[in-house]
Each structure stands twice: as C-alpha cells, then as structure tokens.
Design a protein that fits this description.
eight-stranded parallel beta sheet; 10 helices
Length: 770
C-alpha cells in the first residue's frame, strides 16, 4: 500500500465490520442482471468483458502499463455525505488495485489498496472521508485497475458501492505489550478506540478486570468526548497478576446508541524463555544446502571464524550430529516440517492455507527428542514472513511454547521501505505470533552507495518495539556482497573490515543482544566468494571481540540512543553526557545495569577515518573506565573533574565503538576543584604522520611502573617500547622505528601508542605512511 498518495485507507475483509448492516447506500453497482454492466466498461487490458451470474468480469491481456482497467459511467453524489466505497472482487495472482475518481471541480485522485490474490471473493472497504481530494460532487470513477495479475486472469467484480456509514465506534487494538507474563510482572496494557465512520460520535469506555488482575496505574473510566471520523484515542494502563493462569481483561466502549466489548485473555506463567548469552552466529550453517556426507574441514573453517552457534539444522539431517560432535549450539529448522513457505513465509496465493492440528503434531517427536539437549537453543520457524502467515506462525509458537516453554522461537523479518506500514507490521507480528525476540536484517553496502539512513531508521523502529514489549532484538547484517559471485543482480558489494566493524558497533550502540553474519554458505555466502578467505578472516577477527563485549552488553539495558552530527548536536537533558567536542558523527547509546548505574557506548559513524572527541559528563567521578574488547579488561580512563562535571578524551577507530562505565560518580554535594588538575600523563609524538621513525614524548606526574606500547587498528600488540619503573619526569621520550617486535617493518596505517602508569592511561593515534 502506498502511503505517499496522501490517503488513509481501511481495508476490511468481508463480514468483519459489525456495523456494516447500518450503512446507507448512495449509489451501487450490483451487476445482478446478466448482460447489464450498469455503465461500466473495459478501459484497457481486458477482453471477454461481460456480466453473468451476478458479477462483472474480464480476462486480463496486460501485466504492465496501462494495466487492466474498468471504468464507470457518469453519476453525481456529494462527497461530504458518503465517505466510503465497498468493492467486492476476486483477482487471482494480483498484488494490488487502484481506484480513481473525478469531482465536478476538475479534481482527480487515486486510492491504492492491496489484494488477497487468491481464488475467493473479498470485500475491500476504502475510507475516503476527511481527505482534501474527496470533496464536492463525485461524478465518475475513471478506472479500477488491477496490478500484477498474470495474463489470462479472470477478474470478477461482485459489486461496487458508495456508502454513508454514520458514526462507527470501534476498539481497534486491545492488548498487553508483553510476550510472556510471569506472576508479579508489571505489564503495560494498551487500547486504541476510534471512530471509523463518517459522522462524529460521542464515546466513553470502561475497563473491567478479572479478579486475578490488579490495576497499578490508569483509570477504569474514560470519557473520550466527541471523536471526529478517523480520529483515535489511546488508553494505557499498568496491571499485574499475582498468580499463574489465564485472566480476562474486558474493555467496553459506549456511544449514544450502542456498546462494544473486547475481551483480552491475559496468560500468566512461571516458565518462559529468557536470553542468558549473547547470540553470535552466521545466517546458514556449514553445508546448508548440501546433502551428506559432510566434510569436517568445513566445520573447521566455521570454527576458525570463531562461531559457536549455527542458526539452524534440519531435524532429519546428519548436520545435527556434527554440530553435537563439535560442541556447537544450534536451532532446529521446522519450516518444511510444517508445510514450507506457503504456510509460514510467502504464500503464492497471498492467503496462507491454515496450519492443521495434524501438521502441528509433527512437531511432537522433534520436541521430545531435543527437549533436554543443552545444545539446542530453540526452533527456527521461518524467514521474512508476509503478514498473511502471522496467524499460522502464532499457532506454531503457541504449540511449541506449551510443550517446550523455555526454548526460543526464531523468526526473522525484513524491514521494507515504508516505515509507517512497517510499524503496523511489527505490531501485528508481535500481537499475533507472540515471538520472544525481534530479529531483522538490513543490507546497506551497495556498489556505489550505502544505506546508512535506512539502516538507522530501521534499527530505530526495531529498538522502539523491542523496548515496548521488553524483548531483545537481533541484527542480521551483511558479511559479504555479490562481487565475484553469481548473484550480481543484488548489487551488493563486499564490506571492508572497517565496514564490518561499523555494522557491529552500530548495532551494539542501539542495544542489540544478538548479531548474525549474512551469509556464510552458498552462492551469496563467504564460501561462494572468491575473496571468501579475506572475508572469513575479517569476521573471525571481529567475532571474539563481539563475544567479549556481548557478555558485557547482556547485563545492560538500552535507555536512549542519539546521534551527534556536525552543526546540530542533539544532547538529551538529564543524562550522564553533557557535551561532546568537537561535534562529530557519533552514535551514542545510553545504558543502565541491573543496579541502574550509568554506562554508555560511543560509536564512530565514519568507517574510513578515526575520530577523537572530548566527552563532558554531568557529574564528578571517582573513576571512569573503558572496556577493552580485545583484552577483555576494563581499563581506567584518564579524566579531569571540574565543578560537578568530568571530562575525558576517547579515540574511535573507523566504524569502531567503546563501552564506558560511568557508574562510579561522586555523591551529590562533593564538588571537583575550582581549577582542573594537571593530568597524570601526557603523550605526544613528532613527526606524525611519519614514514620510518617517530619520537614519542611523554610526561609522568608521579613515580611508578611505566609501560609504553604500540597497537594496531585491531587492538593487537605490535611493539613494547618502555616497560620499567621511572621517577616522576616531564621529559621522557622513546623512538619507534615503525617495526614490530620481530624487527619487521609494519605496513602503513593507523596505530595507537598507549602510555600506562599506576592505573592511569593515555592513548595517542599514530599514522604511518609509505
């Protein structure tokens, strides 16, 4: 559905509107008499147009512009009195349709709506009331066009009606924003009440709770006043349940003439899946599409890339035995066991055939076999489903959860391009399927351009809903492109190691609790790429770092994310960070640990250049530390306390990020000194950049053990220049000749000199040229 057409469109399947019988018909074309087309005719792309057996029909001869179209004769009806159009039709294989109208002032407009595309009649209700183009007198429907229908499709229209509905009060949504609920949980309860008619209506509502539910926040009664057509009112409460079981919440909506009830079962259990470890995997396991026997060398390569989780294995496959042999954790793939993509992902008819009890029973031996296997993380249900499959997926999740409640049900989604529609997609997905996680993908590195904006706009929405439903989210990101493979039509390119790092730390800054590299095996995977060895090395180098920092991220809860962009930094109020100078292109993720102490991650959006920034915090601190994901050590940061503030510098490699512990703030009322103290350590070098040799000059404020080391861009130790006890001095120096500890010349690039003494650290970026 195209929202850029500036039209709000309501599409209701036949028989779903409880007030449809109250509609007043302004004009209708029923096609009840054989041979009487009632003024409608074929505009283009149709042949064998006729009226027979109660429907207007035609056979399509075109699949592209000008598209198969019907058009009406002339009529006149006032738009302000009739705000809806009902169309009942069937168009097998078609994706969407468009309806246009003319008014008596020369206006012209188009409404677009999705089609079911199966062999059944469906009713589509178009809500046009309140839009600036639906006005004056409507005098003609110039065309009803059918799009993407195969040539030879018989399109049949049962009726077309222009209606006046009057006021239509509705409870559009009524749900808990939680997937699984345990006794004592604080649970957000949410409702949306609206007027879906074309006249104003006065409404009030009442919340009624089962004896086992306690209202913690919100009111039982609401007066919504007069709601205009297509206007909604949002209601929110906080509830809790003290015991297990199913308890009903009831919302009753009253108007002057009617009342509507909606009953919400609240299921409370003492068993549910909870994520205990950060998830790191590749999209497919070794030999994903090959038949046995499998070679152990493929698993060796997978393990050398530092993976210990395979995202799926077929239950009947010898792959599970090898995964067990290698001690790897994995998911059981159940898609084909339950009928395949037609049922769980992308039904060819746009209407998923129903999952039957007999199909669900096929899961029983699988669940029983793997129920107590500690290597099985859960069940991989499907990838990128259409919303037509949500009901089926929900049945599968419910069936598995009743029998194996502490295992994860895995489904991955693709964000698409329409963010408003994507929000509805995610809400419907979570409401209908009750999935325990949100997993999604966005591939951003194309030949000639990237999609940073789309990446961040998608992850922003995913993070929002993961937070609202209190579930983790995973990001599937691009490991390789199609350069050198047979899948060139995708126009992806293979990311550089810095771009790999960019994807990792951008996801972590937003609070991802799982990262999945796409793709490991096959024509568009690492093993199918001529540069696969280099790609595997890049992934293998980052994976241990991801595991270590992922362990730290598991105990943190994302609270806020913001970007700093040149000229327009958005610094949130009442947060631990007060300022960033100079203004740079950073992503800043704010976190709290289980004790509600502050942490934050800084991420460099530039994947070509390093960046150094000064961070000012809103309190004085006893200690600030930074996590080193290479050494798995929290290292003390050199900082300066001011008056109720602190500041420090951080250098981020291209696409890199740093996690900061800002939990050890000084108590309120303990102020820093009037003048900032001299730093414990100073470090600089000249020349910089340098070709063969640079002189590093440093100062130490007190006697003690001193270490001066050189690291490469990945945090690997290159050379130890100083490792000794020194007296306090302002004139220390050491030369680096651009060689590693083996005496070999290191390649040009970015290096970091790190000076450490008595718990204080200072880092300085070095640039080695040819």
């Amino acid at each position: 559905m195209r929202l850029d057409l500036w039209i709000l469109l309501m599409i209701l399947l036949a028989g779903t509107s409880p007030l449809a019988g109250q509609a007043e018909t302004g004009i209708a074309w029923e096609f009840n008499n054989d041979g009487d087309a009632e003024g409608w005719m074929a505009e283009s792309g149709l042949e064998q147009v006729s009226v027979k057996n109660g429907s207007l029909s035609g056979v399509t001869t075109l699949t592209q512009y000008p598209f198969p179209k019907f058009s009406s004769g002339e009529f006149s009806i006032p738009a302000d009195q009739y705000g809806y159009i009902d169309i009942r039709l069937k168009a097998p294989g078609a994706d969407f349709a468009r309806l246009s109208w003319d008014d008596d002032q020369g206006g012209f407009f188009i409404a677009t709506f999705d089609l079911a595309g199966d062999h059944n009649f469906h009713n589509y209700r178009l809500s046009l009331v309140g839009h600036d183009r639906w006005k004056d007198n409507i005098i003609r429907l110039p065309y009803l066009s059918i799009h993407e229908a195969p040539v030879g499709t018989k399109v049949e229209i049962d009726y077309i009606r222009i209606l006046h509905l009057g006021p239509v009060p509705e409870i559009t949504r009524f749900r808990t924003e939680r997937i699984t609920i345990q006794p004592g949980d604080t649970v957000p309860l949410y409702a949306l009440v609206s007027n879906s008619g074309d006249e104003p209506v006065s409404m009030r509502s009442e919340l009624m709770l089962h004896e086992g539910i306690e209202l913690l926040e919100g009111a039982f009664h609401h007066d919504h006043g007069t709601l205009l057509p297509l206007i909604s009112d949002t209601l929110r409460w906080q509830i809790t349940c003290s015991d297990t079981g199913t308890f009903n919440a009831r919302l009753r909506l009253f108007s002057d003439t009617d009342s509507i009830d909606s009953v919400l079962p609240v299921h409370v259990t003492d068993r549910r899946w909870e994520q205990k470890e950060f998830l790191l995997s590749a999209w497919s396991p070794p030999y994903a599409w090959y038949a046995p026997p499998y070679r152990l060398s493929v698993f060796d390569r997978y393990q050398k890339a530092n993976f210990d989780v395979a995202l799926w294995a077929r239950p009947e496959d010898d792959l599970t035995g090898l995964l067990e042999q290698y001690g790897q954790k994995y998911f059981i793939l159940v898609t084909k066991l339950l009928g395949g993509d037609e049922y769980l992902r992308e039904p060819s008819t746009h209407v998923a055939p129903p999952i039957t009890p007999e199909m669900l029973a096929r899961l029983d031996p699988i669940i029983e076999k793997y129920r107590n296997n500690p290597n099985v993380l859960g069940y991989h249900i499907c990838d990128e489903p259409y919303d037509a499959c949500f009901e089926n997926i929900g049945k599968v999740v419910k069936y598995i959860r009743e029998r194996d409640p502490e295992r994860l049900n895995f489904v991955n989604i693709w964000p698409g391009e329409d963010h408003d529609r994507y929000r509805n997609y995610i809400e419907d997905l979570l409401d209908q399927t009750k999935l325990e996680i949100l997993s999604y993908d966005r591939y951003i590195f194309h030949n000639g351009f990237d999609e940073q904006d789309k990446f961040f706009s998608n992850i922003r929405v995913i993070r929002e809903y993961a937070g609202r439903y209190n579930i983790p989210f995973y990001n599937i990101f691009q490991a390789i492109g199609t350069d050198g493979t047979i899948e060139e039509h995708l126009n992806w390119r293979t990311p550089t190691p810095a771009e790999h790092r960019w994807q990792v730390y951008a996801s972590l800054a937003y609070g991802a609790k799982g990262l999945i590299w796409f793709h490991w095996h096959g024509n568009w995977g690492v093993t199918g790429n001529p540069d696969g060895a280099q790609v595997a090395a890049s992934i293998g180098e980052l994976n241990p770092e991801i595991k270590r920092i992922g362990k730290e991220m598991m105990r943190l809860r994302s609270t806020l994310v913001f970007h700093t962009d040149p000229g327009d930094p958005i610094m949130p109020e009442n947060q631990v960070i007060k300022g960033i100078e100079p203004v740079t292109g950073l992503v800043v993720g704010l976190f709290l640990d289980t004790a509600n102490q502050d942490y934050f991650m800084l991420m460099n959006k530039d994947y070509e250049h390093s960046v150094t920034a000064t961070i000012t915090l809103t309190h004085s601190f006893d200690e600030i530390s930074m996590y080193n994901a290479v050494t798995d050590i929290w290292e003390a940061v050199e900082f300066s306390n001011g008056r109720n503030s602190a500041s420090f510098q951080v250098t981020l490699m291209p696409g890199g990020g740093k996690l900061i512990d800002a939990s050890k703030r000084q108590p309120v009322g303990v102020e820093g000194p009037e003048h900032e103290p001299q730093p414990e350590l100073l470090l600089e070098s000249a020349p910089n950049p340098f070709g063969h040799t640079t002189q590093l000059h440093y100062t130490i404020a007190r006697q003690g053990s001193v270490s001066l080391r050189i690291y490469d861009h990945a945090g690997r130790l290159v050379r130890i220049l100083v490792d000794k006890y020194q007296e306090r001095s302002t004139a220390c120096s050491s030369a680096w000749d651009g060689k590693n500890s083996s005496g070999r010349e290191v390649p040009p690039g970015i290096y970091v000199a790190r000076l450490s003494s008595e718990g204080h650290n200072k880092a300085f970026k070095l640039v080695k040229t040819e």
